[in-house]
Amino acid sequence: MAPERFFLELSPPDASLKTLPHVVIVGGGFAGLRACHRLIGKPVRVTLIDKRNFNLFQPLLYQVASGLVSEGDVASPLRQMVGHAPNVQILLGEVEAIDPKAKEVVFNDRRYVYDHLILAAGSGSSYFGHEEWRAAAPPMKILEHADEIRRRVLMALEEAEQTPDPSRRKVLQTVAVIGGGPSGCELAGSLNELMRHTIGRDFKQLNPEDTRIVLVDPGDRVLRAMDPSLSQAAGHQLEAKGVELMLGARVQQIENGAVVVGLKQTDGSVVTRTLEAATVCWTAGVRASHLGTLLAKATGCEADRGGRVVVQPDFSIPGFPEIRVVGDLCSYSHTADGKPLAGMAGPAVQMGGWVAKDIMAKLAGETAGPFRFTDFGTMAVIGPMTAVADLRGLRVSGQLGWLMWGLAHLAFMPEMENRFSLLLKWLWQIATRERSSLLITGRHDQHLGVEVGLERRELSELDSDQTATQTATGTTSS
Known catalytic residue: 186? Predict the structure, then answer.
C-alpha cells in the first residue's frame, strides 16, 4: 500500500507574494541556481527545492579528492546565496514524484503545488549495467565521493608505509582511473602530483618511483570530445608527468584491488589483462537523474538512452508548457548541427538563465526570443600549471592553457569568498607544492551509501522488473 502523502501549502515568505505565480525549481546546481538568480526581485514567488543545502562547484571535485582544496572551497550554502531574497524560499528535500495534471511535486511525503516547474536535478554516474562495481570503484559526483577517493588514496599510502613486502607496496601505490574524459584526466593528473610529491616528502619507507597512476579508456585517445591535436598534447603531457595511459582497454570486471580489462589488438583480437591497484576511481559514465524517468512515465514525454528528457526549443515537454527541463537532465538538440548540448556547466548556466527569462516574458504576454547557446569552448587541466583549452578554435596547452582554465573556473565560481580561497590555495600550492586538505576522516566506505538521486528506488524497480521477468519465464530459482 502506497504511503499517504499530505498536501503542503507553506505560507509565502511575504504576504504580497500570495497572488503571484509560483515557480518551483528542483535542483540547486548550475542551471537551477542561475534560474533562481534571474527570478530574484521579479513579480513571482520562487521555491528552490534541493536534497542538499548547498550548491556544489562540481568541476573542481577532483581537487577535493586529491587534497588540493577542502569541501568548503567548492560548496556554498544555498540559503546564503539566494535565500536572502524576499521572493525566494529554500526547501530541503528530494522530489520523488510529479503530478503534472494537478501541477504538484511530491517530496518529503507531501504534495506541493506549482504554476511553473523548472527541473534541474542534474546527473549521476553510470556503470553501464554493472552497479556491483560501485563499491570497488567510487564515482566522483558529490562531495562524499571525493572524500572517499581521498581517504582510500591516503589510507593506501599509510598501509604501504608499514608493509615490508615490496610487491604489496607497489600495489598500494597504484591508482587506476577509469575514463579518459576531462574528469578522468584531471583526477589522474592531480593524484599523480599528490602521490609522487607526498611520498617523496612525507613517507620514509616509500619510493616515489613505485607510484603508478593508470588512466584506462576504451578509446584511442584521451579527451575524445576535444580536437585531436589537444588530445594528443594532453596525452603526451600526462605521460611526461608519469601517468600511464591504457588506451583501447574496455573494463570487464572490477574487484577490490584489481581491474580486469580487455585490450583490443591491431588484428582485432582482445587480450585480457589484470591491473592490480589498491585504489580504483570511476569517471567513465554519466546518467541523468532518475527524475527524468519519473517525468517520462507521468507525462509520456520522451527520454533518451541516458535518461535525459528530450525537450522542445523552449525546454518544455509536449502537452505541458509549464514544465521546463534544463541542465544535465535535458536532451536539447535544437542546435545548428543537431547535436545535443553537452552536460557541462556552460550550457547549464545559459539554459537556466534563458528559461527564467522566458517564463517572465510569457507572464507579461511577450516573447523572449529563441534560445541561442554561446559555446565558449572546452578545457581540462592535466597537472600543476598545465592544461589544454579549445576556446572556439583558439587551441592552447601548457601554462597558457592552465591560466585560461583558472580564470574561467574562477569566473564561474558563484561565490566571491570561494574565489578568493581557491586563488590563495592555488598560489600556495604553486609556491610550495603543499596541499591543505590531507586529513583522513570517517569510516571506510561510509560515503558510498549517499545517493545522488533516487538510486535506491531505481535499483528497487530494476530488481522488481527482473523478478517479474524471471517469474514470467519460469527461471526463478526454487
Answer: yes
Residue 411 identity: A
Q: What angle do CA 9, 15, 16 make, to 5 degrees?
A: 120
Task: Identify whether the C-beta of residue 115 lies closer than 8 Å to the C-beta of residue 322.
Answer: yes
Please indicate, yes or no, whether residues 221 and 297 belong to a single structural domain of this protein: no
Question: What is the mean predicted confidence (pLDDT) over 50-71?
Answer: 93
**Would you give the DSSP letter of residue 339?**
P
Which residue of the set 94, 144, 186, 458 is catalytic? Answer: 186
SS3 (DSSP) at 192:
helix
DSSP 80-100: HHTTTSTTEEEEE--EEEEET
Which band of pLDDT confidence, cut at 50, 70 and 90, is reported for residue 151? Answer: very high
Answer for the pair 419, 425: CB distance below 8 angstroms, yes or no: no
pLDDT tens-digit map of 430-448: 767 777 688 887 766 655 5
Say what the pLDDT of residue 478 is.
33
Residue 21 CA to residue 9 CA, distance in Å, equals: 14
Rounded mean pLDDT, 181-201: 92
The CATH number of residue 225's host domain is 3.50.50.100
Q: CA-CA distances (angstroms) from residue 309 to 163, 168, 229, 300, 449?
A: 51, 47, 33, 11, 26
- Cα separation, 342 vs 377, whole angstroms: 11
| pLDDT number for residue 16 | 75
Instruction: Supply the mean pLDDT for the chain.
Output: 88
Q: Which domain holds residue 92?
A: 6-125+287-363
User: 228-240 vs 182-202: helix axis angle to the nearest 10?
Assistant: 10
- Dump pLDDT digits (tens) for 256-294: 899 999 998 888 889 999 999 999 999 998 888 889 999
Mean pLDDT, residues 149-168 taken together: 95
Query: CB-based burial of residue 40 (10 Å sphere; 0-12 exposed, 13-18 middle, 19+ buried)?
Result: middle
Neighbour order of strands in the sheet with 110-113 = 6-8, 110-113, 104-107, 95-99
Q: Scan for cell 553510470, then name that residue.
A: 126
Burial of 475: CB neighbours in 10 Å, binned 0-12, 13-18, 19+: exposed
Given a contact cutoff of 8 angstroms between Cβ atoms, the answer to whether 311 and 325 are in contact is yes
Q: Residue 240 contacts by C-beta under 8 Å, 6 or more apart in sequence?
A: none
Is 384 part of a structural domain of the chain? no
CATH number at residue 33: 3.50.50.60
In the three-class reduction of DSSP (H, G, I as helix; E, B as strand; rest coil), residue 106 is classed as strand
Q: Which pLDDT score is estimated for 476?
A: 44
Q: How many domains does the chain have?
A: 2
Is 298 part of any domain? yes
Backbone angles phi, psi at 176, to 5 degrees: -110, 125
CA 73, CA 64: separation in Å to the nearest integer?
Answer: 9
Flag whether pLDDT at 300 surpasses 90: yes
- Burial readout 426-441 (b: 16 or more C-beta within 10 A, e: otherwise): beebeeeeebebbeee
CB 5 within 8 A of CB 90: no
